[in-house]
Specification:
Length: about 650
């Protein structure tokens, strides 16, 4: 057994105290005489037989025998003798004493099949929890000494334990807000044909003749192609109602003329960012009503919000995640609603209602937000930050998506020659933001779909490191990564840039039109998770859930399964495999990605992410061994027990 230098110093400090205690140690042992009972010994020595049974680990307190040594007091101290020489100080010591705090645990878990995700001690049988922290990880014998009078003992009978999972890119605030928007939940536009959709809209118009405002989704991008929809198709259905129809990618809107009038949009209204956020024009230069990405955002600031409904919806979503064993989330943005959302969350945090650690972000989607970005995070830290709600990240919608040809790609889109998409900021701007964030430990999390966005971000980090003179203290995470140029793969490791994926999308069913835009070759290498892992990148996983109807898909076990299979779970083993077979991950990688790697991305790896002494007791007890079970059944897993900061969650009640 090797002692670390830092521990030796601590040990020397308590040395004097130990010597004093040592002299008492031998008087605290009683030798059993014939006719003794534990009860008798206890009464004579001013204690209880229960205490003696615990201190001495007596399985049957009735069974003691003559000459048996019974400890009367729990020794707080153990002496380890004859540890050799403290070479650093060249001081010879014959004895180095180690203080072993035999603290009693609140909870002891034994007979477990524990996967720790701690590379120094990968498996364990038992662990002990006190004050929300793990105080012991090891075997069934050694955990005994942590069992005190009030310790709750959980015999797992061989069940599997893993560290809690995390969701390192999701949108609880948006899920909560979507629950507050009754219309969005009420209507679902059919995607079968254009005619089906117009008929559906006519039905809504007929049933609600005086409707002032309609905001629903989601129409199919694929049906309308590169040219896109036009307001003239819906103006006759809704001549007066202000209509905003969200598309199936969630990255563009279709407005009618009444909406143009209401927002004051005319032919002179400028675009927000070329190639990314803009009003689509027809051959004659007329705005068609198709609005890509965030060009509409400046007009949506004043949208009303029912805070109670948002709180209720957000909590429902967070509780859903918590019961799946998710202990921490990164909120990757709430657009114009972020202040309202964080106000709601701050209140929930103060009331002790948050069931997870909540890392929040300041969300950039318009060019003019760059200037005050860092300042805003600092302001949020002060104003909303609390016990579980933290602000350490700027989220940027750096490029768009492949479904509406707004992702920044190195080669033109297949279905639109001359278009390479767009980016919100330049390399220089991103570099400066990284350097500014470094001063306050504010990380940057990028929505980066296309290979040009990925390369630009890597270049920005490379230049930032040159200017900084080494690795930055703050992190850069690239999320989505639908297309990554093979030449850039190894740069993630070199630059310490984190690769975040949503394996829930690896079935390929959520991308409508991305295949047409990218073309067969690029699309066949979609979301190269294993390739990046093999290139040494730190890979992390998340659900990227944005609305209440999407909540079931934020199930992390679904993500784990889809990371391994790259197939839709409900369709079975023989269904379509998305992307490259060689990009299938292993179960070991998936669990690492969802636990310790996610913790590193969130900057909380010292606090949680593995089952290790000193870390928060965030654990999941599973009914099956997730590492050995049929991969195609993983998505059905339901935890039997979830511990968050040492407290067992009530999995039955809402
Ligand atoms: Zn997202």
């Amino acid at each position: 057994m090797k002692l670390k230098i830092s521990r030796i110093i601590a040990i020397v400090m308590v040395f004097a105290m130990l010597l004093a205690s040592f002299s008492f140690a031998s008087t605290n042992v009683y030798t059993v005489k014939s006719g003794d009972s534990l009860w008798k010994i206890a009464t004579k020595n001013n204690t209880t037989w229960q205490k003696l049974a615990k201190i001495n680990n007596l399985e049957n307190p009735r069974l003691i025998f003559p000459n048996q040594k019974i400890k009367l007091k729990d020794e707080n101290i153990e002496i380890i003798s004859k540890v050799k020489v403290n070479k650093v100080n060249n001081v010879k010591k014959d004895t180095i004493v180690k203080k072993v705090e035999k603290e009693k645990a609140e909870i002891v878990i034994k007979n477990g099949n524990i996967y720790t995700e701690n590379s120094k001690q990968e498996k364990a049988q038992a662990l002990a929890i006190k004050d929300g922290k793990i105080i012991f990880v090891g075997n069934n014998n050694d955990v005994q000494k942590y069992i005190g009078e009030n310790t709750i003992i959980k015999d797992l009978k061989g069940k599997t334990v893993i560290p809690s999972l995390m969701d390192s890119h999701t949108h609880p605030g948006m899920v909560g807000s979507s629950a507050g928007n009754k219309e969005l939940a009420k209507y679902q536009l059919p995607r079968t044909s254009k005619e089906d959709m117009y008929n559906y809209l006519r039905k809504i118009a007929k049933e609600n003749p005086d409707l002032p405002f309609l905001f629903v989704g989601q129409w199919s991008n694929k049906l309308y192609g590169v040219e896109g929809p036009d307001r003239k198709y819906i103006d006759d259905i809704f001549p007066n109602t202000v209509v905003i129809l969200l598309d199936s990618s969630g990255h563009s809107y279709w407005l009618n003329t009444a909406a143009f009038k209401a927002f004051g949009i005319d032919e002179k209204t400028p675009d927000l960012k070329e190639g990314l956020s803009f009003f689509v024009k027809d051959k004659n230069g007329r705005k068609t009503g198709w609005v890509k990405e965030f060009a509409l955002m400046p007009y949506m600031v004043g949208m009303p919000m029912d805070k109670e409904a948002v709180a209720k919806g957000t909590l429902e979503y967070l509780n859903f995640l918590a019961k799946k064993g998710v202990s921490s989330v990164l909120d990757c943005g709430n657009f114009t609603s972020e202040k309202a959302v964080y106000e709601v969350l701050s209140k929930l945090d103060k009331e002790g209602k948050l069931p997870v650690r909540y890392e929040a972000t300041h969300h950039l989607f318009m060019p003019n937000q760059l200037e005050n970005a860092v300042e805003t995070v600092l302001e949020y830290r002060k104003k909303y930050g609390g016990n579980l709600l933290k602000f350490n990240t700027i989220k940027i919608h750096f490029d768009g998506v492949t479904e509406v040809n707004t992702a920044a790609v190195l080669e033109d889109f297949d279905n639109e020659p001359g278009n390479k998409g767009g980016m919100l900021f330049s390399k220089e701007e991103l570099k400066n933001l990284l350097l500014e964030g470094a001063q306050h430990n504010i990380g940057v999390h990028l929505h980066s779909v296309g290979d040009r966005a990925v390369r630009t971000a890597l270049d920005a980090m490379e230049e930032a490191q040159k200017e900084y003179g080494g690795a930055l203290p703050n992190k850069l995470t690239l999320s989505h990564l639908e297309v990554v140029n093979p030449e850039d793969m190894k740069r993630f490791k070199e630059l310490g840039v984190i690769a975040n994926f949503t394996p829930h999308w690896f079935g390929g069913t959520v991308f409508q039109g991305g295949d047409v835009a990218l073309g067969e070759e690029r699309y066949s290498h979609h979301q190269p998770a294993q390739s990046l892992w093999d290139a040494g990148a730190l890979v992390t996983f998340s659900s990227d859930t944005v609305s209440m109807p999407g909540m079931p898909r934020s199930n992390p076990y679904m993500g784990i399964q889809m990371g391994i299979t790259r197939q839709e779970p409900v369709d079975g083993k023989d269904t379509y495999i998305h992307g490259q077979i060689s990009d299938r991950m292993t179960i070991e990688e998936m669990i690492k990605g969802y636990t310790i790697n996610n913790a590193i991305q969130l900057g909380i790896e010292k606090e949680t992410g593995s089952i290790e002494v000193g870390k928060s007791a965030d654990l999941v007890v599973l009914p099956k061994d997730i590492f050995k079970m049929d991969v195609y059944d993983i998505y059905k897993l339901e935890p039997e027990q979830v511990y968050f900061m040492g407290k067992s969650l009530d999995l039955k009640n809402k």
